[in-house]
């Protein structure tokens, strides 16, 4: 299980940056913790969400994406595999 820490949130943000996405924290009337803006590579996360919701929301978005692992270095690729492995156990 991935721990809900600021460090892991930073690792997720770095992973999205390596994939060409920009993560922004904004206020708004979100029904979920995060969303991808249509036809852009910007992810908007509800800034009023707590750390656990932020991490879970980013993981859910990542699981639904087609990820080109060739864009990732070895550490980010290993982190991505950990996230995908957790999905398989759910």
Structure, described:
- By secondary structure, the chain is α+β, with helices and mostly antiparallel strands.
- The protein has a single domain (about 5-90), classed as 2-Layer Sandwich (Zincin-like).
- Helices cover about 50% and strands about 15% of the residues.
- It contains 3 helices and 3 strands.
- The chain has helices spanning about 5-20, 50-65, 75-90; strands spanning about 20-25, 35, 40-45.
- Strands 1-3-2 form a 3-stranded mixed β-sheet, with helices on one face.
- Strand 2 (about 35) and strand 3 (about 40-45) form a beta hairpin.
- It starts with 5 loop residues before the first helix and ends with a helix.
- The relative contact order is 0.20.
- The model has no long low-confidence stretch (mean pLDDT about 90).
List the helices and strands and how they pair.
Elements lengths: L5 H13 L3 E5 L7 E3 L5 E5 L4 H14 L9 H16 L1
Parallel strand pairs: 1-3
Antiparallel strand pairs: 2-3
**Structural domain tally:** 1
Briefly note the CATH topology name: Zincin-like
Helical amount: 40-55%
Tertiary shape = globular
Sheet with the most strands?
3 strands, mixed
Overall pLDDT score: 88
Just give the CATH class. Answer: Alpha Beta
Radius of gyration: 13 Å
Q: Terminal Cα separation, in Å?
A: 10 Å
* Secondary structure tally: strands: 3
- Return the structural class: alpha+beta
The amount of beta strand, in percent, is 5-15%
List the quaternary state of the chains: single chain
- Specify the CATH architecture: 2-Layer Sandwich
The sequence of SSEs as H and E is: HEEEHH
The total of helices stands at: 3
């Amino acid at each position: 299980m991935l721990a809900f820490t600021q460090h892991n949130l930073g690792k997720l943000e770095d992973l999205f940056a390596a994939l060409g996405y920009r993560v922004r924290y904004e206020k708004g009337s979100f029904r979920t913790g995060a969303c991808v803006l249509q036809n852009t590579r910007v992810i908007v996360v509800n800034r009023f969400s707590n750390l656990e919701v932020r991490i879970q929301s980013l993981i859910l978005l990542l699981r639904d994406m087609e990820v080109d692992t060739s864009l990732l270095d070895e550490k980010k690729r290993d982190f991505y595999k950990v996230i995908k492995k957790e999905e398989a156990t759910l």
